Amino acid sequence: MPNLKDHVILVTGANRGQGKAIAKHFVSLGAKVAVGARNLKDAKALSLEIGEKQSLPVQLDVTKEADWIAAVQTVIQTYNKIDALVNNAGIFIKKPLLETTVEDFQQLNNVNQLGVFMGIKAVTPYMEKQQKGSIVNNVSISAFAPINDAAAYAASKAAVSNLSKSAAIELGPKGIRVNSIHPGVIQTNMVSDSNLNVNEADAIPLKRLGQSNDIAQVAAFLASDESAYCNGAEIVVDGGLTLGTDV
Question: Which InterPro entries did the record assign (predicted)?
């Protein structure tokens, strides 16, 4: 099990779903977690739930550069370092291409792509001074295996996949590792609130839908020193869904 004792980690979109599971799992492994959420009230509620001594609530709308700057500065002022960033915040819109509006496309890219870009830029100067850091981007299998009626979502995730690999090349010499997780169908409110059919697991070789903790455990590995030689890696966590089946 990865050891995150005394690691300082910022998790975005930490108030629900995969982000909440990641934050809770990190605390259980000894980390101090900066809980980022668009609504500070939500961040404070999670901080109270997982332990105020081990967590720091920060307001962080990932589409706002000012929020990124303020959040990272708060982390540094509180803990004097930042060991890892988990870019988890994301949104999902399932619409046929011709029904997808420009506003839909821009919203997806602002949260899913621009938010990750600004996060990388915000933490890099501090990690460079430390000559060490880990950036974990929570992406999606849609980056390489798009589902039907979600072209804009897939495009935003494919962009993050390539951004991650490019950043890994550029930041590696500075001691900063950048890796990606590609979840499959994970049971979260975001999926439940969409019109995505998640009732059947027959197409998945492991015959079950993913759970948020499946992602949290991989995120912990990538944030920890146990993945010290992983850079530019893409770990697929989909139960084998994208391998193909005999159905």
Answer: NAD(P)-bd_dom_sf (IPR036291), Sc_DH/Rdtase_CS (IPR020904), SDR_fam (IPR002347)
Cα radius of gyration rounded to whole Å, the chain:
17
Q: Are 35 and 15 in contact (CB under 8 A)?
A: yes
Tokens of 92: 């999902």
153 is catalytic: yes
Query: Of the listed 79, 126, 153, 229, which one is catalytic?
Result: 153
What is the strand order of the sheet 176-183 is part of? Answer: 55-59, 32-37, 8-11, 84-87, 133-138, 176-183, 234-237
Question: In whole angstroms, what is the distance from residue 94 CA to residue 242 CA?
Answer: 19
As given in the structure block, the two tokens for residue 208 are: 């079950």
Q: How far apart are CA 135 and CA 232, in angstroms?
A: 10
| pLDDT tens per residue across span 32-83 | 999 999 999 999 999 999 999 999 999 999 999 999 999 999 999 999 999 9
Six-digit token string for 144: 């390489």
Beta strand spans in 116-244 (E): 133-138, 176-183, 234-237
CA distance 54 to 60: 18
- The CATH number, out of the four listed (1.20.58.760, 3.30.40.10, 3.40.50.720, 3.40.50.150), of the domain defined by the range 8-240: 3.40.50.720
